[in-house]
Amino acid sequence: MSIPVTTQTVLAVEDLRKIYNEGTDAANMAIDSVSFSVEKGEFVCIVGPSGAGKTTLLRCISGLAAPSSGSVTFEGKRLTDVPAQLGLVFQDYSRSLYPWYTNGRNVALPLAARGVPKGERAARVAEVLGNVGLGHVEKKYPWELSGGMQQRVAIARALSYRPELLLMDEPFASVDAQTRFDLEDLILKVRTELGITVVLVTHDIDEAIYLSDRIVVLSKNPSVVKEVVPVSLGESRDQVETRSSPEFLELRNHLLSLVMPHA
Ligand SMILES: Nc1ncnc2c1ncn2[C@@H]1O[C@H](COP(=O)(O)OP(=O)(O)OP(=O)(O)O)[C@@H](O)[C@H]1O
Description:
InterPro entries: AAA+_ATPase (IPR003593), ABC_transporter-like_ATP-bd (IPR003439), ABC_transporter-like_CS (IPR017871), ABC_transporter_ATP-bind (IPR050166), P-loop_NTPase (IPR027417). Residues 11-245 form the ABC transporter domain. By secondary structure, the protein is of the alpha/beta class. It has helices at residues 54-62, 93-96, 103-113, 118-131, 147-159, 177-194, 205-211, 241-244, 246-259; strands spanning 9-20, 28-39, 43-47, 69-74, 77-78, 86-89, 165-169, 197-201, 214-218, 223-230. The protein has two domains: 9-85 and 164-259, 3-Layer(aba) Sandwich (Rossmann fold), CATH 3.40.50.300; 98-162, no CATH class. A ten-stranded mixed sheet has the order 5-4-1-2-10-9-3-8-7-6, with helices on both faces. Helix 3 crosses helix 4 (118-131). The radius of gyration is 18 Å and the shape is globular.
């Protein structure tokens, strides 16, 4: 399948197939053929039934896993490794932050690895912790914070080196409902302020609609793209008003019909 690629295309996934344990008796095709592209500044969510291959797809997009065939192109170059200009946020924040380092040091870690001059690092750490509303926790440790705050620190760390693309795998699945809403609004705010491109995997259809400009719907395993659904809810979104609007409810019905097992 050929997908349109423009000068503004940050990510292009073409005919991606992933077979685990290929060539053995335990071979398992997680992804059959997936193609889509992401434009600069877009917020794209990936949804699909459990086991559809969402995490597998994200691992291939990030360079953490190699596709069995097909390609991933990031910023015009075919991906062979984890690119330096990629930010990654996973569901399990408790395993992504080092408990023996302060939050500030945790956020600073990728800066040193990317050669940001020492004199610039402190200002960057303060800036991104400010972006996520946590300027006051720099000298505290992750274990002194709530789960939602720890995930904010993990987001700040991924933003500290100003990534071209932020990839998030179920980033809000381990927090309570109220914190989840707060983190969704936070990522929308940060995305607008910093003008970043975001690809987020979620099993939550309402979350995907609330956040996205477009939603890539995967079929059941081994997955193909069932549909790419545009979301025209405007720039400014509100947890109560947006979620109760007729457009939102119409999108939810459509997406449910796509991901329900009988569909
Ligand atoms: N490391 C692995 N080795 C072998 N098979 C794997 C591996 N990781 C995932 N799989 C298989 O690939 C398929 C897709 O799994 P994946 O975790 O990508 O789906 P998912 O859509 O993210 O699932 P969920 O919504 O339940 O989190 C499943 O059949 C799974 O068992």
